[in-house]
Specification:
six-stranded antiparallel sheet, alpha/beta, eight-stranded parallel sheet
């Protein structure tokens, strides 16, 4: 699977393109701005863009009106097809947000139910009770996603709904040549639907990837040979920033070993979960870390740990952004152009190293040294052995590495180091050592 050795770059298009918060009905080809970033994305080294909702919606994209039409605030289907073609020409694959759990109140089939009530042929597309009423006085009650009634839950047990959604996916592949889907709120989706989606997309396009948004629970329940290829690793997302803020690297070391270590009880060994430092729903790394010296170290761990690293647009140059009630655009801003800096250059180097490393993409995981302020772990395959060494303290540290002896090449600097049972870690440093 191509995604397992790839770097993803997440963009929230409505914000990225500077579109109005609410759908104003005006068709403006803002999505073409994404094509102007193709050279930058190629130079950065990303393999795929993960685009949050692009289809016609009421407001933020997750309240879909029409799965076959690009949101007018972003442009036309033709505009988006051209953008996808440009990205593909730059070696960048396209993964779209598949919002299949719910739709907006402006969705065409729900509008038909509002008009015709029980006479609508689409009444069974939703979970409706005509003996009740909604907060919008529709004359019937319906299930909303987690009590958000602007998001009307689809009935994924209805074969007509499943057929419609699968046909839309076929349309996206044929029209835009997409390479995969990120499944919104995958933890809420019907599992039989996910099985059908996996079989269907695999028949449409070889190695079509399915990545689920999962916040909690056992990832094995939906990441398996029958359903999804991957899902978001929120446990390690939290551990990544929390370990630095509490100066307790035992936290992220424990999570990584619990998930990927060699012990029989380690639960996700061999799986490639999507790892990230921030995204469109959480405070950005540059704002959540209390010590800004830790930003490069967090990315150093991110690109060294098991998984599929995903960058959130702008965070690769340290863009701040705090999650706030009723202000999604604080996290989903518009940028006229990329603003690369030293952090961007550092991340570009991390991407280059990961691309060239079988151990970092596919290797085993083993903790070597853990203290509150330092962490050294090993990634290894039959072809390669790499140590990832982090020192979060403001002073140098000498790590005792036991039986590790010999010469190692440090990949970030290109230097050769002698390890005689000890490894010198400069203050606020990250090292990738090939043994």
């Amino acid at each position: 699977m191509w995604a397992y050795n790839s770097i993803f770059y997440q963009i929230y298009p409505i914000g990225f393109c500077g579109a109005p918060t609410h759908n104003d009905g005006q068709c403006v080809p803002r999505i073409r701005r994404l094509a102007s970033w193709a050279d930058y994305l190629q130079d950065l080294g990303v393999d795929a863009v993960l685009l949050n909702p692009v289809f016609e919606s009421d407001n933020h994209g997750y309240d879909t009106r029409d799965f076959r039409k690009i949101d007018c605030r972003l442009g036309s289907n033709e505009d988006f097809a051209d953008v996808c073609k440009t990205l593909h020409e730059h070696g960048v694959k396209i993964v779209l947000d598949g919002v299949f759990n719910h739709v907006g109140r402006g969705f065409w089939a729900f509008r038909d139910v509002q008009e015709k009530k029980w006479n609508s042929p689409y009444k069974d597309w939703f979970c409706i009770n005509f003996d009740g009423n909604s907060g919008y006085n529709d004359g019937f009650w319906y299930e909303g996603w987690e009590s958000h009634y602007e998001l009307v839950k689809l009935n994924l047990r209805n074969p007509a709904v499943v057929d419609y959604l699968l046909d839309c996916v076929r349309f996206w592949v044929e029209t835009f040549d997409i390479d995969g889907l990120r499944l919104d709120v995958a933890y809420s989706l019907d599992r039989d639907f996910m099985k059908q989606l996996r079989a269907f997309t695999g028949s449409l396009k070889e190695e079509f990837v399915l990545i689920g948004e999962v916040l909690f629970g056992d990832y094995n329940q939906i990441v398996n040979n029958d359903m999804l290829h991957s899902c978001t690793n929120y446990e390690c997302y939290k551990g990544l920033y929390s370990s630095f803020n509490s100066m307790n690297l035992f936290e992220i070391a424990h999570s990584l070993h619990r998930q990927f270590g060699a012990d029989p009880w380690c639960i996700y060994r061999g799986k490639h979960l999507m790892t990230f430092a921030d995204n469109h729903d959480v405070t950005r790394l540059a704002s959540i870390l209390t010590n800004k010296e830790h930003i490069p170290l967090a990315y150093g761990l991110l690109f060294g740990m098991p998984g599929i690293p995903c960058l959130y647009y702008g965070s690769e140059w340290g863009e701040p952004g705090e999650k706030a009630p009723d202000n999604d655009y604080a996290l989903r801003p518009h940028f006229e152009a990329p603003k690369p800096n030293d952090l961007t250059d550092f991340i570009r180097k991390l991407i280059q190293i990961r691309h060239g490393s079988d151990a970092l993409c596919n290797g085993s995981y083993r903790n070597v040294v853990i203290t509150n302020h330092q962490l050294i772990f090993e990634r290894a395959t039959e072809k390669e052995r790499i140590l990832v060494a982090a020192n979060a303290a403001d002073a140098p540290y000498t790590a005792s590495c036991g039986d590790l002896n010999g010469t190692a090449k440090e990949l970030l600097s290109g230097r050769k180091l002698d390890i005689a049972g000890n490894l010198e870690l400069p203050a606020y440093s990250i090292q990738y050592l090939v043994l």
